[in-house]
Inverse folding.
């Protein structure tokens, strides 16, 4: 059996939410380098998204503003994908947000904030998937990959609501896989990644913690992007599952 290693996604189309920075930007680069045409979804990083788009290899890439909880924006994104791509082969959910709140600090994690974090990080990916499902169904090999977290099953993370949201996201991915095959749905689950996603978390904190793990190194956005790429282009019979890429954090 031979594998196409140069451009495994040649002719494929992809949308990455939260694609202007961090894990999302790394995923955009990996998918484009593999040959895909990529739509870069962003919230407030329009300039970053445009700069990233300009540096990508290949042609046909574009940017679009895609808030997680804006139904009108989701409909507009679906229209843009349909107009430009005609179908969607890859959807990567990288957008989300959190706050660093000690689990004991229930005064800071109010019920309203808890529900907001749950809705954004779990409800947002569901809503976007729902809006784009007709275009995913036009692809013979569509894949949806959600960037989750080991917080979903360890209960340890930036705050309790974030842990709950990632658990809900994983379960939603599993349910979607059962309901909408042959579209494949997967989660990739890192621990702390070397980005600025969690305000107040220093690089020193990341390295100190990483030294205690089995592999002894920090997980990078590129590590996560390669796991996303593998989920799309190599793991052709994987669906409804969680791919843990935490360097041994959860051991």
């Amino acid at each position: 059996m031979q594998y196409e290693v140069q451009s495994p996604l040649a002719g494929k189309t992809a949308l990455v939410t939260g694609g202007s920075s961090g894990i999302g930007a790394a995923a955009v680069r990996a998918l484009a380098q593999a040959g895909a045409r990529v739509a870069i979804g962003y919230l407030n990083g329009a300039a970053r998204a445009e700069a990233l788009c300009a540096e990508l290899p290949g042609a046909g890439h574009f940017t679009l503003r895609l808030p997680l909880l804006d139904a009108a924006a989701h409909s507009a994104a679906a229209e843009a994908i349909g107009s430009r791509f005609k179908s969607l082969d890859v959807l990567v959910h990288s957008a989300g947000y959190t706050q660093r709140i000690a689990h004991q600090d229930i005064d800071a994690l109010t019920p309203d904030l808890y529900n907001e974090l749950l809705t954004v990080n779990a409800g947002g990916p569901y809503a976007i998937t729902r809006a784009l499902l007709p275009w995913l169904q036009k692809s013979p090999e569509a894949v949806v990959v959600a960037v989750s977290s080991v917080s979903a099953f360890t209960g340890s993370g930036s705050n309790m609501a974030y842990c709950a949201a990632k658990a809900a996201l994983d379960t939603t991915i599993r349910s979607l896989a059962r309901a909408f095959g042959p579209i494949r749905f997967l989660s990739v689950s890192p621990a702390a990644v070397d980005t600025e996603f969690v305000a107040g978390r220093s690089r020193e904190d990341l390295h100190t913690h990483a030294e205690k793990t089995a592999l002894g190194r920090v997980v990078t956005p590129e590590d996560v992007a390669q796991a996303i790429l593998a989920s799309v282009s190599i793991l052709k019979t994987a669906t409804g599952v969680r791919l843990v890429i935490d360097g041994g954090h959860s051991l």
Observations:
- The first strand starts at residue 13 and ends at 17.
- The radius of gyration is 17 Å.
- The longest helix spans residues 111-136.
